[in-house]
Design brief:
With 304 residues, the protein is mainly alpha-helical. The protein folds into three domains: 57 residues, no CATH class; 91 residues; 130 residues. It contains twelve helices and seven strands. A three-stranded mixed β-sheet has the order 1-2-5, covered by helices on one side. Strands 3-4 form a two-stranded antiparallel sheet. A two-stranded antiparallel ribbon has the order 6-7. A hairpin with a 2-residue loop joins strand 6 and strand 7. It is elongated and about 95 Å long.
Length: 304
């Protein structure tokens, strides 16, 4: 089949008279060649002789179109990508091909997935907070029209919904936002997205210091105060000085900060130095830092 087919060709497979296991092999090969040779698989058909019937004194043999089962393999690919990496782009694209509630849900999932990929934690929290309602609105329709996704809908809700936080930039959400960010750090690491995990860890500590100083962690100058204190520099804002003694329950913060900033800089500068860390070392140190930040969060007794 591979020898006979050229890239971009349109193909119809008729497996009516195929022998024993050959229909299954042809089916799998056709699915594979769709990807490797970009063939346009118009149809896989089977003439069902055993289902013959008479119509207007004429014997009719129905022809079954098995092509939708090829699409099921596409759902398998998209599902595996989502489960392994957390990236739901392929799932969203397949849902967008539908109409109505399924398409609306697809855009919600796509926005969440993109927010995770480019490290937009506040956007992710907002989108995730609205996900449950979007899923409830679409669930009945999706179950009836997109059965493959119906098997996944609870998994998507569970994996993405955990990050939901309404109005995450509100002052009253400071503690809850810190907990959600730490959850995101762990999620990135579990999905082996080490760069994102380290980048968000590096931002988490200054946010925690701002929280303890009652400063707005979303204001650039406030974050600069927190970073200066972590770096043991003089820190002031609008003429008001701040000292490390004002940061409650600060055990382990500075030590973790220095280790973290060094590791994060090594990674985000692509290891372009005379002595870059091996990727195995980066992963191990990242895992250790996640544990340390978890211990710091526990001492802070943050309440959502």
């Amino acid at each position: 089949m591979a020898d006979r087919l050229n890239e971009g060709e349109e193909v119809v497979f008729d497996i009516t008279h195929a022998f024993r296991s050959l229909p299954l092999l042809a089916f799998i090969a056709a699915a594979y060649l769709r990807k490797t040779k970009d063939i346009n698989l118009k149809a896989i058909v089977y003439g069902a002789l055993e289902a013959r019937y008479e119509e207007d004194a004429t014997e009719v043999t129905p022809v079954f179109d098995l092509t939708p089962f090829i699409e099921l393999l596409d759902w398998m690919t998209a599902t595996e990508q989502f489960r392994a990496t957390g990236n739901a782009r392929l799932l969203a694209e397949m849902l967008k091909a539908r109409q109505g509630a399924a398409a609306s849900l697809a855009y919600k999932i796509q926005n969440l997935s993109q927010g995770l990929r480019i490290l937009r934690p506040l956007q992710v929290m907002r989108e995730a907070a609205e996900l449950s309602q979007a899923i409830n609105s679409a669930k009945v329709e999706v179950t009836g029209t997109v059965p493959p996704f119906a098997e996944l809908i609870d998994r998507v809700s569970r994996d993405y919904g955990r990050f939901g936080l309404a109005n995450p930039d509100a002052e009253k959400q400071d503690a809850a936002r810190l907990l959600k960010q730490l959850d995101l750090v762990e999620w990135y690491f579990e999905k082996r997205q080490i760069v994102q995990s380290l980048a968000l860890m590096r931002e988490w500590l200054p946010s925690l210091v701002c929280y303890r100083l009652r400063l707005d962690p979303l204001e650039r100058e406030a974050r600069k105060v927190a970073e200066n204190l972590l770096n043991e520099y003089l820190a002031q804002l609008n003429g008001k000085p701040y000292t490390w003694s004002q940061v409650a329950r600060s055990d382990g913060m500075k030590e973790s900060w220095h280790i973290l900033t060094d590791l994060r800089n090594d990674v985000l500068h692509a290891g372009l130095s005379r002595q870059p860390r091996r990727y195995q070392t980066v992963e191990k140190r990242a895992e250790e830092l996640i544990k340390k930040l978890g211990e710091i969060a526990a001492r802070q007794n943050l309440q959502p």
